[in-house]
Amino acid sequence: MNKKKSQNSRKGIRLNKFIAHAGICSRREADMHIKIGSVKVNNKVMTEMGYMVRPTDEVQFDGQRIKAEKSNYVLLNKPKGFLATTRDEKGRKTVMDLVANATKARIVPVDSLDRPTTGLLLFTNDGDLAKKLTHPSTGVKKLYHVVLDKKITGQHLQTIKAGITIDDGSIKPDEVSYVQGASKCEVGIALQSGRNRIVRRIFEHLGYEVITLDRVLFAGLTKKDLPRGHWRHLSEIEIKHLKMM
């Protein structure tokens, strides 16, 4: 270990980074929580933005003790019938049940898939990366395989490709086309938007019902060798790719 690294280790890490590493939120959001007094260090409210957390310090967020954890990145191939949330007051199954054995770290879903939707869902306790991947400026590409209740016309595909306006504004996908080798009820659509039920609403707007919806690509990650209902840890190369986006 070099001298500079040894000095940094003794000094500790910035409080906002500590909170982000605990999987609470991004560093920028942590600064806001520190400012309004939501964070305590050694039972004292800490509003000093640049405070360096030492190994002997006890940090509390909203009254709960937190620990900085090693960053974890878990990819799940979500099956139908699971809510993409950390808990459900009605006791319904959530995706957390599926990744319970993946790590002891406090991981949460990066974004959301509705209950009937299947496919790729990323979990992490890296608050900065989660914030980055959900921010519109990052331009995370998501590819979906859609099965409709009837054949979609070429004209409607062109309408979607050109961009359409639905109830909460306009949307223009990056790509949309028939699935090669399949019936004209099956469509592939790629877009960056994270708006609620956006893919279903695009097709419903034109009079189609989405029978199945499967996310087959998320930020360059694919379902290769990942059966439905199973999870895996990301490789170092995949993590570096996400951080470089």
Secondary-structure topology with pairs:
Layout: H1 3-11, E1 13-14, H2 15-21, H3 27-35, E2 39-41, E3 44-45, E4 52-53, E5 59-61, E6 64-66, E7 73-78, H4 95-98, E8 108-109, E9 118-124, H5 127-134, E10 142-148, H6 154-162, E11 164-166, E12 169-171, E13 175-178, E14 186-191, H7 198-205, E15 210-218, E16 221-222, E17 231-233, H8 236-244
Parallel strand pairs: 9-15
Antiparallel strand pairs: 1-4, 2-3, 2-5, 5-6, 7-9, 7-17, 8-9, 10-14, 10-15, 11-12, 13-14, 15-16
Helix pairs in contact: 2-3
Characterize the structure shown:
This protein is α+β, with helices and mostly antiparallel strands and 245 residues long. The protein folds into three domains: 64 residues, RNA-binding S4 domain (Structural Genomics Hypothetical 15.5 Kd Protein In mrcA-pckA Intergenic Region, Chain A), CATH 3.10.290.10; 86 residues, Alpha-Beta Plaits, CATH 3.30.70; 78 residues, Alpha-Beta Plaits (2-Layer Sandwich). 26% of the residues lie in helices and 27% in strands. The chain has eight helices and 17 strands. Strands 7, 8, 9, 10, 13, 14, 15, 16 and 17 form a nine-stranded mixed sheet that branches. Strands 3-2-5-6 form a four-stranded antiparallel sheet, with no helix packed on it. A hairpin with a 7-residue loop joins β13 and β14. α2 packs across α3. The two termini are 30 Å apart.
Helix content: 25-40%
Name given to the CATH homologous superfamily of the largest domain? Pseudouridine synthase I, catalytic domain, N-terminal subdomain
Shape field: elongated
Beta-strand portion reads 25-35%
CATH class of the largest domain: Alpha Beta
**Uncertain residue segments:** 1-10
